[in-house]
Amino acid sequence: MRGKNVTENRRDLPQLLNDARRWFEEGLLAALAADGVPPVTPTQVQLFAALDEDGTTVSELARRMGVTRQTAHQAVRALVDAGLLEQAPAPTSGRQRPIRRTPQGKSAHERARHALDHLETTLTDRIGSAPMAALRSALEAPWGEPPTGPAGRG
């Protein structure tokens, strides 16, 4: 009789990482709503975080977020309509229209930064300083490119 494979009883790492991302996302969205920031979606939050201070093109935002230009453009449009972003011609190129935070968007970004700091402190209190430091270290370490080709089989 063979023993049960240990991996059968545990969740995949991508599932765990997704749950962790969702925990932060839900906490951030709740904090922003409580702080009076116009409602935003998780995609809009991701876009907002991917912006450079001096502005970023829709194409570059799409690349950073790993989404289509259309998805990035829709998120930008909604954030422009909410008054959090603006799009203006670049001083060096009339064709490029970088996306920038408005004063209201800068304020929302600062509030989001404080909310994320609070969430990280809360998580540290819950799981401990050493596990939090190890988690951060593992996530910040260079992982290199993912392997290509068929997965190894035992």
Automatic annotation (TrEMBL):
Name this polypeptide is given: Winged helix-turn-helix transcriptional regulator
* Superkingdom, natural source: Bacteria
Question: What is the native source organism of this protein?
Answer: Streptomyces xanthii
**Region of interest (Disordered), ranges:** 86-114, 130-154
One GO MF term attached to the UniProt entry: DNA-binding transcription factor activity
GO terms for biological process? response to stress
List residues of the HTH marR-type domain: 10-144
Pro residues bias located where?
A: 144-154
Q: Which PROSITE patterns match?
A: HTH_MARR_2
